[in-house]
């Protein structure tokens, strides 16, 4: 969990430091904007560019390394042809903004040459500022998500059985395991709209979801598609967790819930996770747990009673 928190915390700290460095230069850019004497029409254009920069910072252009390099080289050549200094972060910022030579040609028509040189510098700074603010917002939001998920994940009410939102439990488990998922696992959620809350032991269900999803990630070797489904089939809520890994060999499928059975290497698994999970579902919640597996698909199915009463 500390590692999960460290990633967004480091990203927020890095973005804040970059933002501080940009603000140190921002005053001189503002002074230069005042010196080029923009008329009302051009000021309106600058305000329009400011709004575009804000919008594009929310959805930056995604480019592979080769395409980005080609565009940066082309823009740098275009700027040098107009005797505009292309140093620092100007060109990378313009490419991230989504501009190419044609866009700059159109923009240049609105301004004199001295004005244009200052305006694109100003634009690159504004885009960088908005982008860094967005990164800080995302990173700190991620920290809030993790803390909330951890609280929900570990929270146990004084009453051992409580109303549980299965979707929330699954989503919080995915958040907890985000660091393992992000390496190359695509997560698809298929939650029914009419999914009811159920009576259950919240913390123990979270343990079940963690065991199944963690095993699925390991089975896919960190790369593949994980499908998490939840639907209502009266009198049950059904949860299915499916991965597209190599599958469980037929000779092992009958042993998968046995205590101490594991196909993982020494030190990587105790062979108790699925056994404990099944006991929590079947014995503690009076539900059902099963698995179907073939090459390219393994699906664990959990059926939980909607109106569970441990006293009955």
Task: Please sum up the structure shown.
The chain is 57% helix and 15% strand. It is α+β, with helices and mostly antiparallel strands.
Ordered list of secondary-structure elements with their pairings:
Blueprint: H1 2-35, H2 40-58, H3 65-81, H4 90-97, H5 101-108, H6 113-154, E1 162-164, H7 166-176, H8 178-181, E2 185-191, E3 198-200, H9 202-219, E4 224-233, E5 236-243, H10 250-253, H11 273-284, E6 288-294, E7 297-305
Parallel strand pairs: 2-4
Antiparallel strand pairs: 1-3, 4-5, 5-7, 6-7
Features:
single chain, 312 residues, alpha+beta, Heat Shock Protein 90, 5-stranded mixed beta sheet, two-stranded antiparallel sheet, 57% helix
Descriptive notes:
The protein has 312 residues and is of the alpha+beta class. The protein has two domains: 136 residues, no CATH class; 146 residues, Histidine kinase-like ATPase, C-terminal domain (Heat Shock Protein 90, 2-Layer Sandwich). It is 57% helix and 15% strand. It has a five-stranded mixed β-sheet with strand order 2-4-5-7-6, covered by helices on one side. A two-stranded antiparallel ribbon has the order 1-3. A hairpin with a 2-residue loop joins strand 6 and strand 7. Helix 4 packs across helix 6 and helix 9 runs antiparallel to helix 11. The protein starts with a helix and ends in a 7-residue tail after the last strand. The model has no long low-confidence stretch (mean pLDDT 84).
């Amino acid at each position: 969990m500390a590692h999960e928190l460290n990633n967004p915390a480091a990203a927020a700290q890095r973005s804040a430091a970059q933002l501080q460095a940009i603000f140190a230069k921002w005053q001189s850019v503002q002074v230069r904007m005042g010196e080029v004497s923009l008329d009302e029409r051009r000021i309106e254009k600058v305000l329009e560019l400011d709004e575009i920069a804000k919008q594009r910072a929310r959805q930056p252009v995604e480019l592979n390394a080769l395409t980005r390099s080609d565009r940066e080289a082309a823009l740098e050549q275009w700027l040098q042809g107009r005797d505009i200094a292309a140093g620092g972060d100007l060109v990378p910022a313009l490419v991230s903004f989504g501009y190419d030579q044609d866009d700059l040609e159109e923009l240049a028509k609105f301004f004199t040459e001295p004005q244009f040189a200052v305006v694109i510098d100003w634009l690159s700074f504004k885009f960088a500022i908005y982008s860094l603010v967005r990164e800080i917002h995302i990173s700190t939001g991620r920290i809030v998500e993790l803390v909330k998920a951890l609280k929900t994940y570990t929270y146990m009410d004084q009453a051992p059985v409580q109303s549980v939102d299965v979707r929330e439990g699954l989503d919080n488990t995915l958040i907890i395991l985000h660091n393992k998922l992000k390496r190359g696992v695509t997560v698809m959620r298929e939650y029914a709209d009419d999914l009811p809350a159920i009576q259950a032991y919240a913390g123990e269900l979270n343990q079940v979801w963690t065991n199944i999803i963690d095993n699925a990630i390991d089975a896919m070797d960190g790369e593949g598609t994980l499908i998490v489904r939840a639907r209502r089939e009266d009198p049950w809520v059904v949860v299915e967790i499916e991965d597209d890994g190599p599958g469980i060999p037929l000779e092992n499928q009958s042993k998968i819930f046995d205590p101490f059975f594991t196909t993982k290497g020494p030190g990587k698994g105790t062979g108790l996770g699925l056994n404990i999970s099944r006991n929590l579902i079947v014995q503690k919640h009076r539900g059902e747990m099963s698995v179907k597996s073939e090459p390219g698909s393994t699906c664990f199915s959990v059926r939980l009673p909607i109106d569970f009463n441990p006293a009955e």
